[in-house]
Amino acid sequence: MDSEQLRDYGHRMVDFIADYYKTIENFPVLSQVQPGYLHNLLPESAPDHPETLEHVLDDVKTKIFPGLTHWQSPSFFAYYPSNSSVAGFLGEMLSAGLGIVGFSWITSPAATELEMIVLDWLAKLLNLPEQFLSKGNGGGVIQGSASEAVLVVLIAARDKVLRSVGKKELEKLVVYSSDQTHSAFQKACQIAGIHPENCRVLKTDSSTDYALRPEFLQEAVSKDLEAGLIPFFLCANVGTTSSTAVDPLAALGKITKSNEMWLHVDAAYAGSACICPEYRQYIDGVENADSFNMNAHKWFLTNFDCSLLWVKDKDSLTQALSTNPEFLKNKASQANLVVDYKDWQVPLGRRFRSLKLWMVLRLYGAKTLKNYIRNHIKLAKDFEQLVSQDPNFEVITPRIFSLVCFRIVPTENDEKKCNNRNRQLLEAVNSSGKLFMSHTALSGKIVLRCAIGAPLTEEKHVKEAWKVIQEKASYLIHK
Ligand code: PLP
């Protein structure tokens, strides 16, 4: 590492990125390239000799940029946002610059301890129960993704129950979720060896705005108990991916508690909103949860990746995931004086990710972060109003946070035709390059999702997006 080269190149790279943000609105939000486009633009093999930074950055502009979908564009409304910010970027830069790998406390004590402190800070902002704080048997950890978070707690819960009933009973373990739960949970079950026939996917519908009904859970658990099976895990949602449905945690928690099941709360997107007192109600009942997850990299100004997981019983995690090879042994770990995050996750190596969250919390402060969330929710409310005022459209589920689910209304009661029309609308809107939205299906209806949450989005971008949607829709409606 040549410090002077780093200074020179680093400054130039920051300039390059700052210019990108200045001009981000000039690019089509959704990349318009065809599959394989890059193969024709780059050489067949790596260069033998060093090239200049100018040359590489030129290629980034001319060859890489066309293949980017601009997640940080103010007109990015697809999926859920993946925030970037100056503070988050600086934290990432610092983490890359320091280049440490903090798998055990001893490999960089600050990395472990800062992570514990920052997750305690955030747990307090979310008003999570005390048992999730690091001072007792609980604590928080940064995972790479909500998928990893649900996987590690599922494995922890699986091993906990198997320790009491015996390993041979794996085939009898049953998990529960709603049909709105993210596919990450299904993947976790596949990895954790849960028998596919023992994954209960409980039906939801519009009568509860796609939230899980506690009576359905109770019924399923009772049936499984009668059949001699072992219910052990519920993955509940606060803010589902399709429509931000919120499962009733308090009622579900009573059922999981009385059946000694692990309750995991997936609040990957909506968790961020719960730092605002007026939205905290959506995680009421988290008191009975065993684990809680939110992605700071979605809607909390923290650059990808930064998925926050809290558990009440860290021993369950470490009993399931720890290894102790000779080459990693050290005094602090052997004396059980420290947290070794390698035992809370799947990989060994881990980046110093808490730096960026710490930067975000310090450079913005909780007040700014709350207002940031509130502003997006207000923009979503405005958008929802625009949609409801247009007789050609309907809002499909009531908006709770900053996602609006809507569609062109069916004509002649023809749902199939209506679905096609909405697919066509999405295609037309996205290929315009002016904005990017995604879709889902709810009760067989193809629904467009406008998820507001990119840091640069302002009122004018939302209004402009609506104009484009109306314009594209009018061609389809009058066709
Ligand atoms: N859970 C919810 C509710 C989500 O919306 C998502 C992704 O959008 C996930 C889980 C998966 O997230 P990740 O990519 O962090 O695994």
Automatic annotation (TrEMBL):
* Keywords, in A-Z order: Decarboxylase, Lyase, Pyridoxal phosphate
Which BP terms does GO give this entry?
A: amino acid metabolic process; carboxylic acid metabolic process
For the keyword Lyase, the answer is yes
| Molecular function, one GO term | pyridoxal phosphate binding
Keyword field contains Lyase: yes
Which positions carry N6-(pyridoxal phosphate)lysine? K298
Task: List cofactor names only.
Answer: pyridoxal 5'-phosphate
One cellular component (GO) term of this entry? cytoplasm
- Cite the InterPro entries for this sequence: Aromatic_deC, PyrdxlP-dep_de-COase, PyrdxlP-dep_Trfase, PyrdxlP-dep_Trfase_major, PyrdxlP-dep_Trfase_small, Pyridoxal-P_BS
Entry similarity comment: Belongs to the group II decarboxylase family.
**Cross-referenced PANTHER family:** GROUP II PYRIDOXAL-5-PHOSPHATE DECARBOXYLASE, MIP05841P
Write down what this protein is called.
Tyrosine decarboxylase
